[in-house]
Amino acid sequence: MVDVLIFGGLGQVGEALVATAAEFGREAETVLQLGRADADITDPEAVAAVLAEHKPIVAINCAVFQPVDLCESEPGAAFAVNATAAGELAQACRRAGTRLVHLSTDYVFGGVLRKPRTEEDIPAPPSIYAVSKLAGEHLVLAASPTHMVVRTSGVYGTAREGHGTAPFIERMLERAQAKMGTQVVTDQVISPTFAEDLARAIWDLLRCGGTGVFHAANRGEMSWFELAEYVFDKVGTRRFLAPTTAAEHGAPAPRSAYTALDNRRLRRLVGTDMPPIRDALERYFAARHGELQTVSASE
Asked: The whole model's pTM is what?
């Protein structure tokens, strides 16, 4: 019996959901990961067929069109996956009697507010990617009152080989180990989130019957530069890292200066918050790169 279907399930979050399922009393075989070859969410017939075959209690949508900058040049593809397909999946789940958990992003927030964003804060998406994800949120929530949207931030983890792009910290680690000169922006602040901690939050929210919008990100905030600095310090090659600004970097997609998240509704429903950012980073590096030792930037 399959209780949970994960669309886009071979990426970092899908792998983490399976890895943590047993902690919440779920047998691994009751959680089925679906890649694009198994069920392309832009194909309504394929989605309906897989829901009819497995009759899951819950579906989790991790499928997304990225990277953020690519969405600026391919808006049709971004909206097809992030909005239209998410809405059609939500409707199909409603018809099948399946609850849907849809993953979204901190990037839906814009403006100049400099405090962690709660679920009550009004989004102001600054890019095609962000607009398409916010549209997907609205379509999912409109489909059924039992559906849930989970916004997160700067996710890192381990995807199935050949699926997804390497997370930012892995790209930084590669550059740090190669002693490559690297510039990273100091004026974009997020809440980097370990995929396994996000997965645990999703299982907790399902256990507690969560509906509507929730934020689920590791506690605290970091600029992209501070995150890169953490990685370069691990390797002891801090001297190869230099700060820059978003204006100097000139990425195609505009990004907000501050999108750290406050998990207010999660705390109220579950009773606990997610672990701090640095605790999560330490656990990730200990598990994935245990050979690395923290070296001071001066060495």
From this structure: 0.95
